UniProtKB/TrEMBL annotation, chain A:
Described purpose of this protein according to its UniProt entry: May play a role in vesicle-mediated protein trafficking from the Golgi stack through the trans-Golgi network.
Protein family per UniProt: Belongs to the STXBP/unc-18/SEC1 family.
Native source species: Delphinapterus leucas
A Pfam family of this chain: Sec1
Membrane topology: Peripheral membrane protein
Listed name of the protein: Vacuolar protein sorting-associated protein 45
Localization, UniProt: Endosome membrane; Golgi apparatus membrane
Entries under SUPFAM superfamilies matching the protein: Sec1/munc18-like (SM) proteins
CC per GO annotation: endosome membrane; Golgi membrane
Record carries keyword Secreted: no
BP GO annotations: protein transport; vesicle-mediated transport
Superkingdom to which the source organism belongs: Eukaryota
Keyword vocabulary terms for this entry: Endosome, Golgi apparatus, Membrane, Phosphoprotein, Protein transport, Transport
Gene: VPS45
UniProtKB/TrEMBL annotation, chain B:
Name of the gene: RBSN
Domain Rabenosyn Rab binding: 273-314, 554-593
Compositionally biased spans, kind Pro residues: 513-523
Pfam family, one: NPF
Keyword Zinc annotated: no
Protein name: Rabenosyn-5 isoform X2
UniProtKB keywords: Coiled coil
InterPro entries: Rab4/Rab5_effector, Rbsn_Rab-bd, Rbsn_Rab-bd_sf
Polar residues: bias regions: 22-39, 395-408, 427-439
Domain of life: Eukaryota
Keyword Nucleotide-binding: no
Entry coiled-coil feature ranges: 197-230, 290-349
Organism: Delphinapterus leucas
Region (Disordered), start-end ranges: 22-52, 395-551
Length: 570, 599
């Protein structure tokens, strides 16, 4: 159950199968992203792949001395491009791999186009998703829904992504979904359909306890993506944005040219791998140690001159040193920028109030704090809006709800209309009416005691009190206590035992905070392996874009179907 | 077919098109080469062609009729055949390049094995052989470099210039070759020089000798344990003899491999079957070498190395076992020992002062096998007492008498502050030292010069400008400081000084490290005590490690406290910050005091 490893193995196999000689890798836009997540350029260069080309690029030269490895999604356009390519082959021989199931008719038309018999192989390699971390994958779909229904294109992409994931992990799961979400049900059915249709592909060795696929909807927890984060990976995504492991630092003041875009990949960066789940304070001291460690290894020009032994030590450590210097400069820059943003945007204080809004039930104190922060000139309009959104979500039905007053405060603060409009939209997206479960008040005795104790003793770290709702869901699932009336099985058969291999998919996007939760659950629950996926991985900004894209902001314009469905829900 | 849609194919073309299949046919049958098969292949290709032509047109013997579609296909086929036969230059070069890379992949691990063994002072492999291999591997690297350069510049000056993709391909091949060389070549450790090797061998011999002693002891231990308890002095004297007589020659034999054995005493050692076997193998190697069977030598050498490892392992285990037993015994004897020690301590200390020169090698041994010295039965009491008093203090005079001990010499050290903003927070110890002495002129060996990195790194210090430090403080040379000094001076190479990057470390602004003020001197050079003899470096630094440990601990603690302060600040625990800051100040004060003290 390691998605990075699964994809990487596919790519390695492709390159290996093509034998020795210079190679070109032909990809489409999406597969380029998929490959770049698991292989670095230098790594792939060592395997004699020297050129990377897009199948749709018109400017490719005829290079008959190269072998072509094609890794493509089986879309109509790609098949057409391939047909053109094979009619007038630019390379000596073609190894074709599709990232998903391809129809027989497409294969047939490819075969017909291959007049010069340049195709050596056609295979399906199910690497049809972005492997972010070993336990986290994404489909990079932003805006998967229209209203409360799937965008049909995205539904089919999500189905393909999920089924490819299942195939690459060799799982034929039972499926559960969130009853309150129509989209979850639709996706579950589509996945089931594919499994039934391609039953031969899904014939894996039976495990004692069948794997489980749980499909959830972001609407059920709109709080998590609205919070500021303090663990490294989540924080970098929240404040700087991670896009396929890449971080754009071009807006950092005074940034040097070669640090405008950096790559944070746990696969190739030991420091990142060790620190991605630690909180900001710990990273501060770790980066200091890294720096010191580096300085010790750094060659000393004068010292080098003095003895052969020093020289030798330097030369032997040189590649490591070079690698390390890159790592050090990268992380010092990233952490430095985070730190700058934290103080510039007054994020410690903002986050404290966010956490209070998300985790505690003291309305008057929360209101007071939000009002106070709205007066603070250092708080950006973005953070101000998100505080009000959190307030609106939590105290939506509170008797002394003073959302209108806060909205006035926002206006007085000069927050743009774009953000102010988003407040009711977010409530529309993930408000109480929509949620299938209770996000804020604990349900069982244990949870109530926990919260009581929390209030009594104070919390360990005020900035990280929040636990995503997913934690509770998964915890119940692992203990076989997840209610069937809220999360029914698709089909008649149900799981008698506690599940072992679990794949959770969140329509509308997962978050890195949830990825951390899953990471911790994997570590602390022996025998249970969980993989988390989402249509994308959100930070607050992208989440708000997702909400906006769903078109819920103006309910009057919604299609009649959606309104009627909403009405019936009421 | 009417005339309009009819195409004609000339016979030469037809021949060319069919020759491919003819070739393949003839190669298939080539082993037998019977006239029959040649005839058969003819029939398969040409006869069919001619039969077609004969039917179509008797007069046009040199042309074949066909339709447009067929002609198209046939022309495409011709193109394919042409492509197959033509190998572009880049492919030829590339194939050579790959061959070289494969060669490196084969040879480099072998060389590394050899170099590691030689650098450990082992004599499993011969130095010359390793040197030859090194030269060979380096030649291949040069070839890789040259080939990839050639690929890079291929057709570059042509008009019109090659397609951008071709250029990209060439660049990428060059890049990957550079990566390959960087990764592998720089991983190649250098070999010791002849003199160095002798030194290493000696060192290893000592090591082995030490093991011998332990082994001897283990044997004697079992025999004499009871006896020893009764009389320390007697048993000790016997033991000393054993060490010098029997311990000596044995390791020599092992280390020197093919050297002739020195009769009687050696025979005793050979009672160990492992040693016997080692002996045998070394003589085989000698014979194989004489016969010039290098592959066999290699196998044998590998075999020998394994044996030696095994033997070392055995010895170590014995030693461990022994030390355990001794520890038990030690308890029994401690009381007795205590009395004796008290009584004689004063006198013996004086004695040792006088004796230290004579017992130089001994005192080194003391350090290494200290646990055993606690056992009164083994060692003369004066040594024992002394060892206990001194703890494991370094015996500097014993190993490297030629080397000026850096910690004994007072070196001028310049202190200044004002490294780039970021560096300041990281490195409280911002001092730079400069030695007055000039470093040895050419410390590089030829072999080192041949590697590109060595060349690159060798040049900058030569061009170093003389420095004029603003503040100058006399200070003891401290090997641990220099690291930080360097850092501070060089600043953070990755964040330009003007980049704000205020980072979490800004927090410490309130407590600037104590140091004299002065303008920043970026990149100012500093030189360590130049070591005229590179071989001394190891032993020297080994000793130095011990003295400033306390200071290092202090520095470490300071760092820790800073981290705590940072953490506390992050979490807003201000009262804690205050306490910690106080603590930090104290530590720094202590550090400064200590430094002044040792000055």
């Amino acid at each position: 159950m390691n998605v990075v490893f699964a994809v990487k193995q596919y790519i390695s196999k492709m390159i290996e199968d093509s034998g020795p000689g210079m190679k070109v890798l032909l990809m489409d836009k999406e597969t380029t992203g998929i490959v770049s997540m698991v292989y670095t350029q230098s790594e792939i260069l060592q395997k004699e792949v020297y050129l990377f080309e897009r199948i749709d690029s018109q400017n490719r030269e005829i290079m008959k001395h190269l072998k072509a490895i094609c890794f493509l999604r089986p879309t109509k356009e790609n098949v057409d491009y391939l047909i053109q390519e094979l009619r007038r082959p630019k390379y000596s021989i073609y190894f074709i791999y599709f990232s998903n199931v391809i129809s027989k008719s497409d294969v047939k038309s490819l075969a017909e186009a291959d007049e010069q018999e340049v195709v050596a192989e056609v295979q399906e390699f199910y690497g049809d998703y972005i492997a972010v971390n070993p336990h986290l994958f994404s489909l990079n779909i932003l805006g998967c829904c229209q209203g409360r229904n799937w965008d049909p294109v995205q539904l089919s992409r999500a189905t393909q992504g999920l089924t490819a994931l299942l195939l690459s992990l060799k799982k034929c799961p039972m499926i559960r979904y969130q009853l309150s979400s129509e989209t979850a049900k639709r996706l579950a059915e589509c996945v089931k359909q594919v499994i039934t249709k391609e039953y031969e592909l899904f014939e894996f060795r039976r495990t004692e306890v069948p794997p489980l696929l749980l499909i959830l909807d972001r609407c059920d927890d709109a709080i998590t993506p609205l919070l500021n984060q303090w663990t490294y990976q989540a924080m970098v995504h929240e404040l700087l944005g991670i896009n396929n492991n890449r971080i754009d630092l071009s807006r950092v003041p005074g940034i040097s040219k070669d640090l405008r875009e950096v790559v944070l990949s746990a696969e190739n960066d030991e420091f990142y791998a060790n620190n991605m789940y630690l909180n900001f304070a710990e990273i501060g001291s770790n980066i200091k140690n890294l720096m010191e460690d580096f300085q010790k290894k750094k060659p000393k020009e004068q010292q080098k001159l003095e003895s052969i032994a020093d020289m030798k030590a330097f030369v032997e450590n040189y590649p490591q040193f070079k690698k390390m210097s890159g790592t050090v400069s990268k992380h010092v820059t990233v952490v430095g920028e985070l730190s700058r943003l934290v103080s510039e945007r007054n994020l410690l204080e903002v986050s404290e109030v966010e956490q209070e809004l998300a985790c505690q039930n003291d309305h008057s104190s929360a209101l007071q704090n939000v009002k106070r922060l709205l007066q603070n000139p250092k708080v950006t309009e973005f953070d101000a809006a998100r505080l009000v959104m959190l307030y609106a979500l939590h105290y939506e039905r509170h008797s002394s709800n003073s959302l209108p007053g806060l909205m006035m405060d926002l206006r007085n603060k000069g927050v743009s209309e774009k953000y102010r409009k988003l407040v009711p939209t977010v409530v529309e997206y993930g408000g109480k009416r929509i949620r299938g479960s209770d996000l804020f008040s604990p349900k069982d005795a244990v949870a109530i005691t926990k919260q009581f104790l929390k209030g009594l003793k104070g919390v360990e770290n005020v900035y990280t009190q929040h636990q995503p709702f997913l934690h509770e869901t998964l915890d119940h699932l692992i203990k076989a206590k997840l209610k069937e009336n809220l999360y029914p099985y698709l089909g008649p058969s149900t799981l008698r035992d506690r599940p072992q291999d679990i794949i959770v998919f969140i329509i509308g996007g997962a978050t890195y905070e949830e990825a951390l939760t899953v990471y911790n659950l994997n570590r602390t629950t022996p025998g249970v392996r969980i993989v988390l996926g989402g249509t994308t991985v959100h930070n607050t900004k992208s989440f708000l874009e997702e909400v906006l894209a769903s078109g819920l902001h103006s309910r009057s314009k919604d299609s009649s179907q959606v309104t009627s469905r909403l009405a019936s829900r009421r | 077919m009417c005339k309009k849609c009819m195409e004609l194919i000339s016979l030469p073309l037809a021949n060319k098109l069919t020759s491919a299949s003819k070739d393949s046919l003839s190669t298939h049958t080539s082993p037998s080469q019977s006239p029959n098969s040649v005839h058969g292949s003819r029939r398969a290709s040409i006869s069919s062609v001619s039969s077609v032509s004969s039917v179509l047109d008797e007069k046009d013997d040199d042309r074949i009729r066909c339709c447009t579609h067929c002609k198209d296909t046939l022309l495409k086929r011709e193109q394919q055949i042409d492509e197959k036969e033509h190998t572009p230059d880049i492919v030829k070069l590339y194939e050579k390049l790959r061959l070289c890379m494969e060669k490196v992949d084969q040879k480099a691990p072998e060389y590394i094995r050899m170099a590691a063994s030689l650098n450990a002072g082992e004599t499993t492999y011969s130095l010359e052989h390793a040197n030859d291999l090194r030269v060979e591997v380096q030649k291949v690297y040069e070839l890789i470099d040259a080939l990839s350069k050639k690929i890079l510049t291929l057709d570059l000056k042509q008009d019109p210039p090659p397609h951008p993709n071709t250029l990209r391909l060439q660049r990428m091949i060059r890049y990957s070759a550079t990566l390959f060389v960087q990764e592998k070549l720089l991983g190649l450790m250098s070999l010791p020089t002849k003199e160095q090797f002798e030194e290493l061998k000696k060192k290893r011999k000592q090591e082995v000798e030490r093991k011998k002693i332990l082994e001897r002891r283990a044997a004697l231990e079992s025999q004499r344990r009871l006896e020893e308890r009764r009389s320390d002095l007697v048993s000790h004297a016997t033991n000393g003899e054993v060490v010098s007589l029997r311990g000596g020659p044995a390791p020599l034999r092992k280390a020197e491999g093919w050297l002739p054995l020195s009769g009687g005493q050696g025979q005793v050692e050979d009672s160990d079957p492992l040693l016997q076997q080692i002996h045998n193998i070394t003589s085989f190697i000698r014979q194989a070498k004489a016969a010039g069977r290098m592959d066999e030598v290699r196998t044998l050498q590998e075999n020998l190395r394994q044996l030696q490892d095994e033997y070392d392992q055995q010895q170590t285990e014995k030693a461990i076992e022994l030390s355990r037993r001794q520890a038990e015994e030690e308890d029994l004897q401690r009381e007795q020992l205590q009395v004796l020690r008290e009584r004689e301590r004063e006198r013996e200390r004086e004695q040792f002062q006088a004796a230290s020169l004579h017992t130089r090698t001994r005192s080194l041994d003391f350090r290494e096998i200290r646990p055993f010295q606690l056992e009164p039965g083994r060692e003369p009491r004066n040594h024992l007492a002394h060892a206990l008093d001194l703890g494991c203090s370094p015996a500097q005079s014993s190993v490297a008498p030629k080397t000026p001990s850096p910690s004994s010499a007072l070196e001028p050290i310049r202190l200044w502050s004002g490294p780039p903003a970021l560096g300041q927070e990281f490195f409280p110890q911002s001092t730079t030292s400069q030695h007055n002495e000039v470093p040895s002129l050419n410390p590089f060996d030829e072999e080192d010069l041949s590697s590109p990195a060595a060349e690159g790194t060798a040049s900058p210090p030569a061009a170093e400008p003389p420095l004029s430090p603003p503040a100058c403080v006399l200070k003891e040379y401290n090997p641990f400081e220099e690291e930080e000094e360097e850092e501070a001076v060089a600043g953070n190479p990755f964040t330009s000084p003007d980049s704000p990057a205020p980072s979490p470390f800004d927090e410490e602004d309130g407590h600037p490290p104590q140091r004299p003020s002065g303008p920043p001197v970026p990149g100012s050079p500093f030189e360590e005590a130049p070591c005229t003899n590179p071989f001394e470096v190891d032993s020297e630094s080994g000793q130095e490690d011990e003295e400033p440990i306390e200071e290092e601990l202090l520095l470490q603690q300071i760092d820790n406290i800073k981290a705590y302060i940072f953490d506390a600040k992050q979490c807003g625990r201000l009262d804690e910050v205050e306490v910690l800051t106080e603590n930090l100040r104290e530590l720094k004060h202590t550090l400064a005091k200590q430094k002044r003290g040792t000055d």
